[in-house]
Amino acid sequence: MTATATPTVLTARALLLDMDGTLVNSDAVVERIWRRWAERHGLDGDEVMKVVHGRQGHASMAVLLPDRPMEHNLADNARMLAEETADTEGVVEIPGASAFLASLRGLPHALVTSADVPLSTARMNAAGLPLPDVRITAESVGASKPDPEGFLKGAAELGVDPADCLVFEDSGAGIAAGRSAGMTVVGVGPRAGLHGPDVVVRDLTQVRVEAAGGGAMRVHIG
């Protein structure tokens, strides 16, 4: 299926949801934090921003500073996570996110984010969104997106075969992770359309979910 906003219906038994750029618009704070980091390290801010979306911070640093020891990246990332958690100015929901999450009550779904527990909690709260009961965060995995580990763990937590899961993602790293996990990927927002999701929507106002019986869901796109 090619990426399109043409109305279509997908079926799934579970939905796996990224946070930043998918449920929550945190671009303002991500830009502030990472452009300051780029300046400190003498890197071009625009080039840095092409890398950082969707990955854990230390994984982005490993791409951007390939010769730096990983322990330095981990320590630097811990400092940045504290900065990001404290800075929620401009963090808002992606249009349609609140209604979308409300429609998933009682249906199998999980948050699968590269943020840690404090950051994901702070951003979801700042956007006024409820946290799903099942959450796969940075603490849950040994490898960052684009590795599929987070999505595979989400599927396992929900007891659903990966092939029956539908991923919602905005970033290249996240879309690659979903596809590597053998899942259908719905891209959210203009950034997503550049990275080959199965379908793409402008925002979550273009998505409607309904129970289909037998543990399945119908996801209306467009």
Folded structure, characterized:
The chain contains eight helices and eleven strands. It has helices spanning 27-40, 45-52, 57-64, 70-86, 97-103, 117-126, 149-158, 172-180; strands at 8-12, 14-17, 24-25, 92-93, 109-112, 134-136, 165-169, 184-188, 199-201, 207-213, 216-221. By secondary structure, it is an alpha/beta fold. Helix 1 packs across helix 2 (45-52) and helix 3 packs across helix 4 (70-86). The relative contact order is 0.22.
Describe this structure in a few short sentences.
The protein is α/β, with parallel strands linked by helices and 222 residues long. The protein has helices spanning 27-40, 45-52, 57-64, 70-86, 97-103, 117-126, 149-158, 172-180; strands spanning 8-12, 14-17, 24-25, 92-93, 109-112, 134-136, 165-169, 184-188, 199-201, 207-213, 216-221.
